[in-house]
Amino acid sequence: MKKLDVKKLNNMLAIILCVLFLGVYIYWLVTNNSKYEWYSVVAGAASCTLFLLCALKFVPMLTKAWSKDSFYSGAEHKTPYEKIALMFLISRIIIFILPLVFNAIFSRNTSYYNIWVQGDSPHYIDIAKEWYVTEGDAKFFIVFFPMYPILIKALSFITGEYFISSMLVSNLCSFVGFVFAYKLFICDYDEKTAWRIMRYIIFFPAAFFLSSPMSEGTFFMLTMMSMYYLRKRNYFISCVIAFFAAFTRSLGVVLLVPIFIELVSDCVQSTDKKKFIKYFACLFIVPLGTLAYLYINYSVWSNPMQFTVFQWEHWHQKLGLFFNTIAYQFRYMLSYIDKPNYNALFGISIPNILVHISSLFIMFFAGRKKGMRASYYAYFLAYFIIAIGTTWLLSGPRYLLTCFPLIIGLALIADSKKKDIAISTIMILLQVVYFGLYIAKMQVY
């Protein structure tokens, strides 16, 4: 493909994206004209515009990745297991000590168990104990994917205790995730940048969830493993691991996006196109994880989509437009200020709004730097649309914690010592505050 042709293609795709986003936003504006105040409309427009700018940055990345000018790194590097283990251990010791410090400072008598087992945590533990049931409040737990509870159950045969098992699973998976994260990042970046990304994972404001009795640690591990084997061009292993990611969380199926992009890029550069038929067939493995979860819905409720019924009836939750999310978040934030509800204000609204806007800014500026792979950028865009585009978002920071291109984007922006120190300091302070709100049970989910 000639460079002139690529430039024309980029321009054409850019025009299509602009028209598409403008049309979707106008449709949303017309259908919600009487629902939102002016500031919510402006917030929605800002979110839509920022995302569009990110999408426009992605267009030339994609056409380059799918051309002969693309490149493959993925060279083997020595993995410093001791250094990774030390970094992880120190960070976890701090995370486990902080609740005790908060309790002492604020004279709280909250038990260590109750500090960690809150939000969705007890639901995962209940599933591990009883599996999915059809009676009582526990019937709603079908909305939670089964991989993490299965691991808790398996380990409980050794420990004899579900809470300890849940914490062990989360932290062991997180450690393995850290190892594969480094192995992945060193494929694409120099050692200094790779370690910066590793630090930023630890510093991320919601990083304490990696050690909580939640599915984040497990999902993080599976995502990093799948992406690492993808970069090593082991498509079958990558897709098998992505299957388990899709069996862990609904967002696991989004791994199809980077796998497909890397596959096409590799195919374009290869002289043996026939061998890629079996590689593309591997893509069908990934959604089988989601289908397995739907089968569980069917086996328990005789309805493979029962989880969507409960999500709407019990949580008023369904997939929507991501810029609609920030519109209603602004409305709720101002209502929480007008009629004081500080738990919801500082636990839900402000963190969700901040992570929504900041992540789009980060990825826009990261798109202007060299080093962001098209597959990573595409993963962020697809992940953001689904994770943030819900009709009642409670856990934006937690959801985006495992969206690794966002962390890479931060590391690429921090290309000087001053920027690195500033970003690190801000994230550490935000994590201390956010973790403090979580410990205080201020509706941090």
Quick overview of this protein structure:
With 445 residues, the protein is mostly helical. It has 20 helices and no strands.
From the N-terminal CA to the C-terminal CA, the straight-line distance is: 48 Å
Taking the sheet with the most strands, its summary is:
none
Parts with pLDDT < 50 across at least 5 consecutive residues: none
Number of strand elements = 0
Output mean pLDDT.
Answer: 94
Please state roughly what percent of the residues sit in beta strands, choosing from under 5%, 5-15%, 15-25%, 25-35%, 35-45% or over 45%: under 5%
- Name the shape in a single word: globular
Number of domains: 2
Write down the Rg.
22 Å
- Helical segment count: 20
Proportion of helical residues: over 70%
Q: Write the element-wise H/E pattern from the N-terminal end onward.
A: HHHHHHHHHHHHHHHHHHHH
Structural class assignment:
mainly alpha
Name the descriptors.
72% helix; single chain; 2 domains; globular
Question: How is this structure best described in words?
Answer:
The chain has 445 residues and is mainly alpha-helical. It has two domains: 168 residues, no CATH class; 228 residues, no CATH class. Helices cover 72% and strands 0% of the residues. It contains 20 helices and no strands. Helix 2 runs antiparallel to helix 15 and helix 10 packs parallel to helix 13. The chain is globular and about 65 Å long. The termini are far apart. The model has no long low-confidence stretch (mean pLDDT 94).
